[in-house]
Design goal:
The chain has 94 residues and is of the alpha+beta class. It contains two helices and four strands. Strands 1-2 form a two-stranded antiparallel sheet. Strands 3-4 form a two-stranded antiparallel ribbon.
């Protein structure tokens, strides 16, 4: 069994249960059924920094190829590299 399936097999009451794909790997988007928080994970199931969304917020598109989420240390905002680079280009052009 893959690691996602092993973790999924022993949940406690109210505990987070990881979502696995048909091959037993972690799905890129994970959501906690009890709290409603969602976040992106890497192939080992580790949360990717800056991707957690609060309950009632649309979850991120974690599968989108070529788009990487990162946490901007100065502003404290999660943005995609694509939008960050577009913003830099616009700032330099003005």
């Amino acid at each position: 069994r893959r690691s996602c399936e092993k973790v999924r097999g022993r949940p406690g009451v109210g505990a987070f249960i990881p979502q696995c794909d048909s091959d037993g790997r972690y799905r890129p988007l994970q959501c906690h059924g009890s709290t409603g928080h969602c976040w992106c994970v890497d192939s080992r199931g580790q949360e990717r920094a800056g991707t957690r969304t609060p309950p009632g917020t649309a979850p991120r598109d974690c599968d989108r190829p070529g788009i990487r989420w990162f946490f901007h240390k100065t502003t404290g905002v999660s943005v995609t590299l694509l939008f960050y680079l577009v913003g830099l280009c616009l700032l330099r052009a003005s």
